[in-house]
Design brief:
The protein has two domains: 288 residues, Aminopeptidase; 120 residues, Alpha-Beta Plaits (2-Layer Sandwich), CATH 3.30.70. It is of the alpha+beta class. 46% of the residues are buried. Strand 4 and strand 5 form a beta hairpin. A six-stranded mixed beta sheet has the order 1-2-6-3-7-18, sandwiched between helices. Strands 12-14-10-15 form a four-stranded antiparallel beta sheet, covered by helices on one side. Strands 4-5-19 form a three-stranded antiparallel beta sheet. The chain is globular.
Length: 464
């Protein structure tokens, strides 16, 4: 059998309704990791849904308990055909955010796939059940055509990604020898645009922090004390305004990347940022001057104010508030020292006369930045494979604009990481009405079938 025969198998699987039926069964399991009452559903998704699917394809499976105090279990599956063959490691997550049932449009449910035109609605269709189901369906298409994979395959499915992946680093550290492989290939996140196949090689890091000004115990009448008492809301607004220019360019020197290299700019040169027809319009004046939209998102840092509060916004009174606080975030790329993000901000605030503003790192909201060299042999291999399937060069992103626990695979397992996303930016991920685009999913099945087929052929990068 041939590569094209395997891709034809994947097309029949999609066109005949097999993929939709399997995904519908998985979406129906309410794996809300943010809801403690759904803990049993997380285990059920692994043991009753995914494990039988893997075992049907000749994988050996076991459920791994979570080393963290809080967090769902892991499913580890492997199919070892020969010690001489290349070994791929993959990943996905079976958990989803809260269903937000009451907020979905009339006629839609987070736990049922509803088809409207090209859109398949349901929680997890895009993040991440649809994506790892595509990859598993592509494995089946290759096995049907060739009778074997031609490579060794190891996969880890977690059930806590939406709550920060507790225990993921620890389980990879514990199982480092078992998880040993040559390359990491997985799927999550969005394409650059719905129509264009994309690979990304890491993720921006993220660090959340709080800024606060606390001046006194209570509020005081603005008529009697206005102009005499410092207003913490005004002070904090000025402090925040000094972190960036009026158009969002970063002023904290240590937050400005030095890794927007010629190689990174070269791969981003043909990348046009587009979230699809429902995406917001880009504000061309916003962000670092002199950079393209792609360079701003995939090669630079961005500072955001996520929430700001002073006084009582719902019931304002004529009083000078005693305190103000803001919850902020920095998305950053490789080359920025995460341990120095808050200290660098402290130095910046002090230099500009804002010693009264307190800056503290938040307990949640941290992922490290990672990036595989765009010139790495596995990147060239993946590009050739996708181009052979689609007839077009995929977009190559040095990292996505969002954040993933990619540092666990890159740093703990020491693997070159290649992600092939099967969603798009306007999919309503983490919101009501989440959906998967059917044409994109069909295209992704073809691409992943070609990738898995090519892993079993000669021409993969040599082991170091």
């Amino acid at each position: 059998m041939t590569r094209q025969a395997a891709i034809a198998n994947a097309e029949r699987y999609f066109d005949g309704g097999g993929f939709r039926a399997e995904l519908a069964r998985r979406v129906a399991i309410p794996t809300e990791s943010q809801n403690p009452e759904r803990a049993g559903e997380l285990e059920r998704y692994l043991s009753s849904e995914l494990q039988p699917a893997f075992e049907k394809l000749g994988f050996r499976c076991r459920i791994l308990p979570n080393p963290a105090r809080q967090g769902g279990p892991f499913l580890y599956a492997e199919r070892i055909e020969s010690a001489e063959l290349v070994t791929a490691f993959s990943y996905g997550h079976g958990d989803v955010i809260r269903g937000q049932d009451a907020q979905w449009r009339d006629g839609l449910s987070p736990w049922r796939i509803t088809v409207e035109g090209e859109r398949w609605y349901g929680r997890g269709t895009a993040d991440n059940k649809g994506q790892h189901s595509i990859n598993l369906g592509a494995v089946a298409a290759v096995l049907e055509a060739r009778g074997r994979l031609g490579f060794n395959f190891k996969l880890l499915i977690e059930t806590g990604e939406e709550v920060g992946s507790p225990g993921l680093r620890a389980v990879c550290e514990q199982q480092c020898d078992v998880f040993r492989a040559d390359v990491f290939i997985a799927s999550d996140g969005p394409r650059l645009s719905p129509e264009r196949a994309t690979i990304f090689l890491g993720s921006r890091g993220v660090l959340n922090f709080d800024l606060s000004v606390d001046l006194r115990k209570g509020g005081h009448h603005s008529g009697n004390w206005g102009g005499l008492l410092a207003n913490p809301g005004t002070i904090l607004a000025h402090a925040i305004a000094g972190i960036t220019t009026s158009s969002g360019g970063i002023r904290v020197p240590e937050w400005r990347p030095k890794t927007l290299t010629s190689a990174v700019r070269a791969v981003l040169a043909d990348c046009e940022v587009s979230g699809g027809p429902d995406a917001p319009d880009i504000d061309p004046h916003w962000g670092e001057p002199g950079l393209s939209a792609a360079e701003k998102v995939y090669g630079w840092s961005s500072f955001e104010v996520l929430a700001f509060r002073t006084g009582d916004p719902d019931r304002p009174v004529n009083a000078i508030p005693p305190r103000a606080n803001a919850h902020c975030q920095l998305r950053y790329v490789v080359g920025i020292d995460p341990a120095d993000i808050v200290p660098a901000l402290r130095r910046h605030l002090d230099r500009n006369g804002f010693a009264m503003v307190r800056a503290t790192q938040a307990r949640d909201g941290f992922f490290a930045a990672t990036r595989l060299d765009p010139q790495h042999p596995w990147v060239h291999w993946a590009v050739r494979s996708i181009q052979a399937t689609t007839g077009a060069k995929p977009a190559i992103l040095p990292n996505i604009g969002g954040s993933l626990p990619n540092d666990v695979f890159a740093d703990v397992l020491g693997l070159p990481t290649v992600w092939v996303p099967h969603s798009y930016a306007a999919c309503s991920q983490h919101a009501p009405d989440e959906h998967l685009l059917a044409p994109l999913a069909r295209d992704a099945l073809r691409i992943m079938t070609g990738l898995w087929w090519d892993l079993g052929e000669r021409g993969t990068p040599k082991r170091p």
